[in-house]
Amino acid sequence: MTEKLIIRPRILNGFTVEIKTAYGKMYVTINESDSKPIEIFIIIGKSGRSIAAKAEAIGRLISMILRNGVEVEKVIKQIKGIGGENPHPDGKETYLSIPDAVGKLLEEFYGEKAQKTNEDKIKKENILLEDKHNEI
């Protein structure tokens, strides 16, 4: 399998999600190109702490993997479910570790269920557009 390198555009759109962890609040920023994630920044705790360095490394490695054309589903499969010493509940979700939290976040926005939801939204929007066009 040959993977294609995605060149980072000068400007990207993205979003940031706050996740409560056993180490404090974690902020995950996901930047997209063509509606696909290609860059992830993970910030947790104060700079200089070991956990902050590990989170930054995870974000850099995931970004490199995504920019090399690896499908996000493969990333989710590898990191979701990784356990750690301090699992932490946040609302209806329990995060087993930082990688698990990032995997679950990627799954929420880019997994199969998210893709199906987006496809359904597009179909509904197309039906509405057709109905409006037929009224004219």
Quick description:
The chain is built from four helices and five strands; from the N terminus they run E-E-E-H-H-E-E-H-H. It is an alpha+beta fold and 136 residues long.
Task: Describe this protein's structure.
With 136 residues, this protein is an alpha+beta fold. The protein has one domain (13-111): Enolase-like, domain 1. 46% of the residues lie in helices and 25% in strands. The mean pLDDT is 86.
Helical content (DSSP H or I, runs of 4+): 40-55%
Rounded to the nearest angstrom, the radius of gyration is 18 Å
Beta-strand percentage range:
25-35%
CATH-assigned fold name = Enolase-like, domain 1
Encode the helix/strand succession as letters. Answer: EEEHHEEHH
In CATH's first tier, which class applies? Answer: Alpha Beta
Structural class by sheet pairing and helices: alpha+beta
Q: Provide the CATH architecture.
A: 2-Layer Sandwich
Shape: globular
Q: Strand tally, please? A: 5
The N- and C-terminal alpha carbons lie at a distance of 49 Å
> How many domains, in number, for the residues?
1
What's the total helix number? 4
Please state how the strands of the largest beta sheet are arranged side by side. 1-2-3
In round numbers, the mean pLDDT is 86
- Describe the main β-sheet briefly: 3 strands, antiparallel
Question: Low-confidence runs (pLDDT<50, min 5 residues)?
Answer: none
